[in-house]
């Protein structure tokens, strides 16, 4: 009886595994399995319809990447990160530190960056001069309509943690109440207009009661515990002109790609297998 029971159990598990791994949808002959759908539903906490739509979109996008011979290597990613850092007034090393702190794992950001670069390269291939380049008037209009994207705090209250020993500083950050002889603490109220663009960006993008990444200073290392942001200050158009241009063109590219993508979905051969 036990042998029969275990035999039925094994058979049942095999049937379940086969069902999960079986193909649910074909997108131009590219398979999407029930497992793919279930996994996305679980990891992103979304409905089955949302998961299916996302996976179909992903399949079509990957097919377009192959069709137009789009490739992205580590040099592309490094170049993109350097430009992004420069736009935000930072060197690449500091920018990576900020990103790693925000994402928890820099590899996640790299994967997202790879997808962004693929989209940019795809847009260049399919646009071929069809996308209008933003001029001064376009940028000023965008700036005025999205002024909240270009505002900073007027003042930021912080507790500065400084040390010649990076390891000691990291330990103090992990245990702020700990007395560390190698770490000096001091309270400060910083006016953003007096800060360099790099530090201003870091502080404004650090939530209250959180530490900034460790920053290399002339006399060692420093991290700031942001305690309070006071007031708001709008950055001048000229000071953020490069970023505005990037933002405008990014939105135009996204819209163009979305419209192009919708046309591809209409003509795609999508079959529901089961």
State the end-to-end CA separation.
35 Å
Strand elements, count: 10
Q: What's the multimeric state? A: single chain
Overall tally of domains: 3
Query: What is the string of helix and strand elements?
Result: HEEHHHHHHEEHEHEEEEHE
Q: How large, in whole angstroms, is the Cα Rg? A: 25 Å
Reported for the largest beta sheet, the result is: 5 strands, antiparallel
Number of helices: 10
Q: Roughly how much helix do the residues carry, as a percent range?
A: 55-70%
Low-confidence stretches: 1-17
Helix vs. strand class:
alpha+beta
Q: Give the overall shape, derived from the CA principal axes.
A: globular
Beta fraction = 15-25%
List the helices and strands and how they pair.
Layout: H1 2-21, E1 23-27, E2 30-33, H2 34-44, H3 48-67, H4 74-87, H5 92-103, H6 106-127, H7 136-145, E3 151-152, E4 155-163, H8 166-174, E5 184-191, H9 197-204, E6 210-211, E7 215-217, E8 220-230, E9 233-234, H10 241-267, E10 270-272
Antiparallel strand pairs: 1-2, 1-10, 3-9, 4-5, 4-8, 6-8, 7-8
Write up this protein.
Strands 4, 5, 6, 7 and 8 form a five-stranded antiparallel beta sheet that branches. The chain is globular, with a radius of gyration of 25 Å. It folds into three domains: 2-67, no CATH class; 74-147 and 238-265, no CATH class; 154-231, Chitinase A, domain 3 (Roll), CATH 3.10.50.40. The chain is built from ten helices and ten strands. The chain is α+β, with helices and mostly antiparallel strands and 274 residues long. Strand 1 (23-27) and strand 2 form a beta hairpin. Helix 4 crosses helix 6 (106-127). Residues 1-17 have low confidence and may be disordered. Helix content is 56%, strand content 18%.
């Amino acid at each position: 009886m036990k042998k029969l029971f275990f035999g039925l159990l094994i058979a049942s598990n095999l049937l379940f595994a086969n069902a999960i791994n079986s193909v649910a949808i074909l997108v131009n002959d590219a398979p999407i399995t029930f497992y793919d759908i279930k996994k996305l539903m679980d990891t992103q906490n979304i409905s089955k319809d949302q998961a299916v739509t996302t996976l179909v979109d992903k399949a079509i996008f990957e097919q377009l990447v192959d069709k137009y011979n789009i490739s992205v290597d580590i040099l592309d990613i490094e170049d993109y990160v350097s430009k992004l850092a420069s736009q935000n007034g930072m060197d690449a090393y500091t920018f990576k530190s900020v990103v790693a702190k925000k994402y928890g794992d820099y590899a996640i950001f790299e994967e997202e960056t790879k997808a962004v670069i693929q989209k940019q390269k795809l847009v260049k291939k399919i646009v071929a001069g069809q996308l209008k380049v933003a001029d001064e008037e376009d940028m000023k209009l965008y700036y005025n309509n999205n002024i909240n994207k270009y505002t900073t705090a007027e003042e930021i209250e912080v507790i500065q943690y400084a040390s010649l020993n990076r390891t000691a500083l990291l330990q103090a950050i992990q245990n702020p109440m700990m007395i560390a002889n190698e770490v000096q603490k001091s309270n400060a109220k910083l006016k953003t207009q007096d800060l360099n663009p790099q530090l201003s960006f870091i502080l404004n993008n650090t939530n209250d009661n959180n530490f900034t990444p460790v920053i290399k200073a002339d006399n060692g290392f420093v991290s700031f515990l942001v305690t309070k942001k006071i007031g708001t200050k709008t950055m001048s158009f000229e000071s953020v002109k490069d970023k505005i241009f990037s933002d405008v063109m990014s939105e135009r590219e996204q819209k163009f790609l979305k419209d192009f993508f919708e046309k591809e979905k209409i003509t795609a051969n999508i079959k529901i297998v089961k």
